[in-house]
Amino acid sequence: MNVMTFNIWSDAPRNASWVRRRDRIADVLRRHEPDLAGLQEATRPMLHDLHERLPEYRWIGEGRDDGGERGEFTPIFFRDDRFALIEQGRFWLAAACDRPGRGWDAVCCRIVSWARLTERSSGRSVLHLNTHLDHLGRQARVQSAMLLLQKIDELAGGMPVIVTGDFNCRESSAPYRLLTGQLSFSTPSAATPGLRDTRYDSEQVPEGPRKTYRGLLGLLGLGRIDYIFVRNGLRTRRHVVLDEAAGASDHRPVLATLGFTDAIS
């Protein structure tokens, strides 16, 4: 299966016109045909436009500000001919994670969308989570990484897991090291395997630029912040950062080709 993560740059007035960008964003998905795609910074009007242009996809997700229509979404798009939706849900990256709210020192409400999907051809199931960590709250990013691992354990068990997102942190950061098992913390999750970064898990040499963020901070060193992680029963065959959609988004899309295995790690 092909899995993509792509921050598509919100339609806020300060950003480039969405009307002028929407066809180029849709073209990226149409051209690379991801079976699963985690998007970030999507608003309800943007999702309407993409759904209209990509009828082969269904999507799940809710607005982060109210659990409904307000604020940015972290939607999961999936090909309806490839996967059947079994269950879906969301939680917020906050101490009270079952309702809308900002967590710790975060500037914005942050939400995780998740979907349990079954591959129609094989009957194999996978849990896909998609999120966008806070851009300023350092404590919030650390706490969010720990909460994300805890929720993965609750939701997945031994099921194959895919995590996509804009994590707003470098590989050397505490959130990344927590997620990948390089740092542990005193919860039941500390005894479980960390997530595997598909860039380093790939059987083929990773392709494309290393940096996924095109904005000003990317010039100052904040380059690779968009990740695809896996755990349990998945192998990474290919990982590529797509050097396209310049001007349509301030991020590059990331694409990984995955296959099912029987491994639990």
List keywords for this structure.
single chain, 265 residues, alpha+beta, six-stranded mixed β-sheet, 12 strands
Structure description:
The protein has 265 residues and is of the alpha+beta class. It has six helices and twelve strands. The chain has a six-stranded mixed beta sheet. The two termini are 19 Å apart. The model has no long low-confidence stretch (mean pLDDT 94).
End-to-end Cα distance: 19 Å
* Main β sheet profile: 6 strands, mixed
Q: How many beta-strand runs? A: 12
Secondary-structure element order, as H and E? EHEHEEEEEHEHEHHEEE
Mean pLDDT across all residues, rounded? 94
Number of helices: 6
Query: Which strand order spans the largest sheet, edge to edge or round the barrel?
Result: 3-4-2-1-12-11
Radius of gyration: 17 Å
Q: Which class best fits the helix and strand makeup?
A: alpha+beta
Gross morphology is globular
Q: Please report which band the strand proportion falls in: under 5%, 5-15%, 15-25%, 25-35%, 35-45% or over 45%.
A: 25-35%
Q: Identify low-pLDDT runs.
A: none
What percentage of residues falls in helices of 4 or more residues? 10-25%
